[in-house]
Model the fold of this input.
Amino acid sequence: IVLTQSPGTLSLSPGERATLSCRTSQGVPNNYVAWYEQKPGQAPRLLIYGASKRATGIPDRFSGSGSGTDFTLTISRLEPADFAVYYCQQYDIPPWTFGQGTKVEIK
Amino acid sequence: EIHLVESGGLVVQPGGSLRLSCAATGFAFGDNTMHWIRHVPGKGLEWISLISWDGGSTHYADSVRGRFTISRDNSKNILYLQMHSLRNEDTGLYYCVKEESLEGFGEFGGLGTLVTVSS
Done:
């Protein structure tokens, strides 16, 4: 399954809302889609699994939605720590595949 | 909290070999399927291989099948990736990843180890 993320780069200011898209080349039957945040020099951090479930310790400004072939990560109010690269992943149909990433940068 | 420490990455010439290791703490290593994933510059994250909890089942990406071998030692809580016939395109940051038993998602817990294939 090929995952296509858009946009490639999102330029926003702190306090704004970020909406990141992930489209899959075929349906993900169980909605086993995850979102990860990665900052330079750090491992990817799990934010969302099962399309909409927040991982342990993830603040509620992060939310995931979607089903089938279209999935969305929303950050309701960007904080300075949220400027990073975000990857979606499907773990429903082997092998695991990842999107190419969306960079959220400070405008 | 899971903690995964990857090691073994080096600069190696094309055609060379390397063995990567991943030391795991903070969870019941022997209960979980484990994966190797690499981050290739300009290409993003790529799944490489997985091994079942007992080592009885392994799977590989087409790009590495026949050249890489995944294994584990549950008595030592260590995951391995033996890499042969390395190519320039194998260059990247290699992560070991724990598969969560019930929900199936992956958990990264380390900083990765850098493999550079270059003459």
In short: The two ends of chain B are 39 Å apart (CA to CA). Residues 23 and 78 of chain B are 5 Å apart (CA to CA).
